Amino acid sequence: MSNSMATMPNPRMPTLANTLWRAEGQSRWVRNAILVVAGSALMAIAAKINVPMVPVPMTMQTFAVLVIAMAYGWRLAGATLLAYLAEGAAGLPVFAGGGGVAYMMGPTGGYLVGFFVAAVLVGFLAERGWDRGPIRTFAANAMGTVTIFGFGLLWLTPLIAGSKGISLSDALPVAYAAGVAPFIVGGLVKTALAAVVLPTAWKLAAKR
């Protein structure tokens, strides 16, 4: 049994970042540090982008989370999102509405936590080959988007219950109507867009 298990192939596959930028030893640490800084900067830029949509404008943060997770894998994507959240906690205006711990504890706090969890989840799936074709890439990104919405809803519900003096069960539909429903269309658009970008990037990488 032990011999057969030892010869089983590792299900983990190389990420797009590892494929395009190969590095070993100390240079690997340097590369990862550069990618973390670049990814956190991309998150900050995406937070400031507003795309007109109905019923509400759409920022590109969720799209950035999905692309970073797919390209980096779960460890590096998780480190990137932790760096991004740390920058915001330090007061840097990297979020859509600014920065600081008080902002992170507000209504959008759940989505910020969801960014990290989604990055780890989607990055894990990417390392299992879920970033190579459009169907599985869309499925992985959809899981990530649902994760972000789910954490946002779980965070927002008790805040609304406390502010309005109502029960959690009564606050849940209010939180859904305010914090999830208006963003579903935008979430689907960003999920589909990421499902196009990643397989296309792999095809370009294969030509190299």
Q: Please, could you describe this protein's structure?
A:
- This protein has 208 residues and is mainly alpha-helical.
- 72% of the residues lie in helices and 2% in strands.
- It has helices at residues 2-6, 16-20, 26-48, 61-72, 74-89, 101-104, 109-126, 134-164, 168-179, 184-207, and strands at 50-51, 58-59.
- It has a two-stranded antiparallel sheet with strand order 1-2.
- A hairpin with a 6-residue loop joins β1 and β2.
- The longest helix is centred in the last third of the chain and has 31 residues, at 134-164.
- Principal-axis shape equals globular
- In which range does the helix fraction lie? over 70%
Largest sheet: 2 strands, antiparallel
N-C termini distance: 40 Å
* Overall pLDDT confidence: 90
- The string of secondary-structure elements, in order, is HHHEEHHHHHHH
Strand content: under 5%
Topology, number of strands: 2
What strand order characterises the main sheet?
1-2
Write the layout of secondary structure elements.
Elements: H1 2-6, H2 16-20, H3 26-48, E1 50-51, E2 58-59, H4 61-72, H5 74-89, H6 101-104, H7 109-126, H8 134-164, H9 168-179, H10 184-207
Antiparallel strand pairs: 1-2
Helix pairs in contact: 3-4, 3-5, 4-5, 4-7, 4-10, 5-7, 7-8, 8-9, 8-10
Quick structural overview:
The protein is built from 10 helices and 2 strands.
Notable characteristics:
about 0% strand, 2 strands, about 210 residues, mainly alpha, disordered N terminus
